[in-house]
Amino acid sequence: MDDASQSRPLRPGDEPGAVPPADVPTLLVKIFGKDRPGITAGLFDTLAAYTVDVIDIEQVVTRGRIVLCALVTAPARGAEGDLRATVHGWAESMKLQAEIISGRGDNRPRGEGRSHVTVLGQPLTAESTAAIAALITGAGGNIDRIFRLAKYPVTAVEFAVSGAEPAVLRSALAPQAAARGVDVAVVPAGLQRRAQRLVVMDVDSTVIQDEVIELFAAHAGCEDEVAEVTAAAMRGELDFEQSLHARVALLKGLDVSVVDKVRAEVRLTPGARTLIRTLKRLGYQVGVVSGGFTQVTDDLKERLGLDFAAANTLEVADGRLTGRVTGPIVDRAGKARLLREFAAQAGVPLSQTVAVGDGANDLDMLNAAGLGVAFNAKPLVRQAADTAVNVPFLDTVLYLLGITREEVEAADALDGVPTGA
Question: Which residues participate in catalysis according to the annotation?
Answer without folding.
Answer: 202, 204
